[in-house]
Amino acid sequence: MKKRIVVDANVFVKALFKDHIYAQHVLQAIQDDEVILLVSQPIRREILDVTYCVAIDRGASHDEALAFKVIAERILNRGRTLYAPKVFAGCPDRSDNKYFDCAIAGTADCIISEDSDLNGIVDPPIPVLSPWQFLNSWK
User: Fold this and answer.
1) Residue 132 CB-half CA count within 13 A
2) Which letter does DSSP use for residue 121 in this model?
3) Amino acid 26: pLDDT
4) What confidence score (pLDDT) does residue 3 get?
5) Fold for domain 4-138?
6) Is the pLDDT of residue 139 over 80?
7) What element of type H or E holds 36?
8) What is each CA distance from 123 to 14, 91, 126, 127, in whole angstroms?
9) CA quadruple 30, 32, 33, 35: dihedral positive or negative?
10) At a CB cut-off of 8 Å and minimum separation 6, what does 129 contact?
């Protein structure tokens, strides 16, 4: 049975801009349909906005930044977009609650992130794993 995952924007950034091999493998698993990506509209917006902004911050032209955004969008389109009501309020950065909301709504197996605000939650309702932890526990 395929794992159902929610992926934080920082995994996209590390895969697309920092040559983070484990983050790249997570995104490749999504593209290869080896896992089921769960995504809500707020998560989709954040990932696309962050991808574009990081590209611009790294000196990309508008067109180059749009190309990175298209790559992220193609990966997101492989996932299942779902409505995720606001049910979780335990993240120090309240904007990160959307990852738990999506994971809970979609009965995810885990959230993949390297964000200390997500990783630092005591007794999270859904496990939070780094890309490396996920890849080592998945297969």
Assistant:
1) 4
2) -
3) 97
4) 96
5) Rossmann fold (3.40.50)
6) no
7) strand 36-39
8) 26, 12, 8, 8
9) negative
10) 110, 111, 112, 113, 137
Map tokens 């309020």 to a residue: 89
Q: 1 falls in which pLDDT band (50, 70, 90)?
A: confident
pLDDT tens digit sequence for 41-98: 999 999 999 999 999 999 999 999 999 999 999 999 999 999 999 998 888 889 999 9
pLDDT single digits (tens) 2-33: 999 999 999 999 999 999 999 999 999 999 99
Separation between Cα atoms, residue 122 and residue 84, nearest integer Å = 22
Rounded Cα gap, residues 15 and 54, in angstroms: 12
Residue 37 identity: L
All structural domains of the chain with their residue ranges: 4-138
Structure tokens at 46: 């954040």
Q: Looking only at Cα atoms, what is the longest distance across the chain? A: 43
